[in-house]
Amino acid sequence: MKRIFIPFFIVILYLCGNLYAQIPNAGFENWTNGEPDNWTTNNAPPLLVFITQTGSAHSGSSAVEGSVISSGGVNISPALVGGPDHNGWPYTDRPGSFHGFYKLTSVGNDILTGDAVFVHNGSFIGATYFTLGPASSYTEFSSDITWITADNPDTLLIDFIITNGSGNLNVGTTFYLDDLSFGASTDVKAENNSLTTFELAQNYPNPFNPSTVIKYSIPKESFVTLKIYNLLGQEVATLVNEDKPVGTYNAKFSTSDVSSGKLTSGIYLYRLTAGNYVQTKKMMLLK
Length: 287
Fold this sequence. Notes:
Layout: H1 8-19, E1 31-32, E2 35-36, E3 39-41, E4 51-54, E5 63-67, E6 69-71, E7 74-76, E8 79-82, E9 89-90, E10 97-105, E11 111-120, E12 123-132, E13 135-144, E14 146-147, E15 155-163, E16 174-183, E17 199-200, E18 211-218, E19 222-229, E20 235-244, E21 247-254, E22 266-274, E23 277-285
């Protein structure tokens, strides 16, 4: 029988090409008209271009670069959202962790936040959310995924955005991303069943359409309100308005729940009040 010789470099190229095949265009090598293939951005050329292709890559020939830009006196975060229509991709696996490589030039207290959310029949069944600080050279991040049901997902949502605890972003903050992938659980996160502080997490996915989840924790029994506002300070929706025992909770917000009419794309605020604790964060609706 005749042997078929496959050059070693062909094998290496095949393996490298499939390493990130779990996430479409995970190495950001492919771009069309200034947009990364299979991803959505908040670019609005020619005036506003937040996301660009860069040759400063961790591997391969390109990566994605995102910068905070000022428009009309407001500093706006770059938004990178999975899926050509910002609704994610078909996906059926249950990985243990989300990995990638990033750089971040941070002005003020700006940080890079990201998440991967897994959906089954329209319901969130697993997710990971993480924040990344300044890094002058490519640094690997790894975040374990928490699964809340035993179902296999049908959709994967991923997004990255710049945030700041004060809500005031800074022009000049820039991130770079490359070589995203999934893997097994890292088994380095310890579960803390004894809550000691109030916490309001960044919603996920963010940007979102049509729904998102807001996670919050309370260390003692409190009367809790969680409300959504537009940038004019007008109340859009009330998600929670009741006494809550100690615990961590997920509140789902959907644009279909708004009785006052359809919401337009843009920035919205969500505010958690629990006893004397008050925290407000921003989220983006991207239609």
